[in-house]
Write a structure and sequence with these properties.
The chain has one domain: Rossmann fold (3-Layer(aba) Sandwich), CATH 3.40.50. Helix 2 packs parallel to helix 3. Strands 2-1-3-4-5 form a five-stranded parallel β-sheet, sandwiched between helices. Helices cover 45% and strands 20% of the residues. The radius of gyration is 13 Å and the shape is globular. 37% of the residues are buried. Helix 4 links the parallel strand 4 and strand 5. The protein has five helices and five strands. It is α/β, with parallel strands linked by helices.
Length: 123
């Protein structure tokens, strides 16, 4: 199972996401809500980072993902309600392993994480 970093500005969503992922056998290595915290936490060497587009402290999720990947070869899955065509084009620079649009079902999130984890294991 995957080691996952959650980068989400809504603590309620992040906590529930963590519960669901851990219930499915994944290990959540951290929950953070902004870019600076995410960059520090990537030292825990997650396999995946689930990254919201809009984060605390005016952090941008796409830039955060790029900074994470520059420090450590982590796969990124964007999880956001802000995925219009312009934002989707911006996410391409981070070469995401998946995109989950809010609102989503927990089953869908787990499917995307499973696919991204398989891609990580195969790499």
């Amino acid at each position: 199972m995957a080691r996952i970093l959650i980068v989400e500005d809504d603590l309620v969503i992040a906590t529930r996401m963590s519960e669901i992922l851990e219930g499915a056998g994944h290990q959540v290595v951290g929950i953070v809500n902004d870019e600076a915290s995410a960059v520090k936490q990537v030292a825990s060497r997650p396999d995946l980072a689930l990254v919201d587009i809009r984060l605390m402290n005016d952090s941008d999720g796409v830039q955060t993902a790029l900074h994470l990947k520059a420090r450590y070869p982590v796969k990124v899955v964007f999880v956001s309600g802000y995925l219009d065509s312009y934002t989707r084009k911006r996410t391409a620079a981070a070469e995401p392993a998946g995109i989950v649009v809010k609102p989503y079902s927990w089953q869908h999130l787990l499917e995307v994480v499973s696919i991204a984890s398989a891609a990580t294991s195969a790499a």
